[in-house]
Every structure is written in C-alpha cells, then in structure tokens.
Design brief:
mainly beta; Immunoglobulin-like; four-stranded antiparallel sheet; 9 strands
C-alpha cells in the first residue's frame, strides 16, 4: 500500500509540473512594413472582409515602413514575438484589424466594415506574423489602419499603417 501511495504522489507532482499554465508577459515587434507572404490553409471567417483568414507559411519583409500603397496585391503587417513562459506553450490571441473611419464598403455587406476580429493559437517564443493583403478594389481605402493583438483582455500590441493612394 505505501508503494501505491508513493506512485500516486509522484504522478500528481509530475503532472502538476507538465501542466504549467502559460503566462504572456508582452509582445515584442520584430519587423513592420510591406511583405511577400506565402500562404497555407484558408479558414472561413465571416467576420473578415475577404471571408477567410489565411495562414502565413513564410513571410519575407520587402520594406520596413508604415506607409502602404493602396494597390491590389500589396501585403502589409507586423512580425512579432510573444514573450512569456513556458517557451513553446500555445496561447490564444485575439487579432483586430481596425479600418479607416469610413470603413470598407464590401459590396456583399449592407453596412461598411469598420473592423474585423478573429482568434488564433500562437506559440510563446516564436516569431509570428499578423498582416493584411489587398485582394479587392473595395479594400483599397486610404487612411489609418490599426492592428491590435489582445490576450486575456489585455492589449499587447497596437501598430498603425497609413494607406495612401
């Protein structure tokens, strides 16, 4: 019986160590500007203008800038690293794109789109990318575009880009 109690106690102690809760301290910006992005899986999402969120597989910075030309095919965004513990743990982040004051006039939507939101699991200690690519003419809206990243109700990143004609 004492042997079984010891094994049970050992399992409880080791299980607690493995189940360490992830803690996000902050997000550091690694790069910002215009990018070339190789994409992977598209996930349908009715809350974003194009109707889906695309997983970036490989991103290459073309130019570090906060000024973005309003042209179809242009991709802009921010590379960031989640700082926290334990390294390698997954955390859920909320991503918000805020569009210029007048919003985006999607022909399929009765009202202008002022922002889009989605959640994704990301990894502590890994460089990640959050961006936007112009695919339709109605998205080419000049003005200030804001990218926010939130974790557990806390704003960890806010980056702004100015889209110009």
């Amino acid at each position: 019986m004492p042997h079984c109690l010891f094994v049970l106690l050992a399992l409880l102690v080791s299980g607690g160590a493995v189940a360490q809760e992830a803690r996000v301290e902050r997000i550091d910006v690694v790069g910002k500007g215009l990018y070339k992005v190789e994409t992977g899986q598209r996930t349908p999402d009715t809350d974003v203008p194009t109707g889906s969120v695309t997983l970036p597989l490989k991103v290459t910075k073309i130019e570090g800038t906060s000024s973005v030309p309003a042209r179809s095919g242009v991709e802009f965004g921010v590379e960031y690293k989640i700082i926290g513990e334990p390294t390698g743990a997954e955390v859920t982040l909320e991503f918000i794109n805020k569009y210029p004051a007048d919003g985006l006039a999607d022909p399929a939507s009765p009202a202008p789109l002022r922002e889009s939101r989605f959640e994704r699991k990301k990894t502590i200690g890994t460089v990640e990318y959050f961006g936007y690519g112009f695919e339709n003419d109605w998205e080419l809206v000049p003005g200030v575009w804001t990218f926010d990243i939130i974790h557990d109700g806390r704003l960890l990143l806010e980056e702004q880009f100015t889209v110009v004609e």
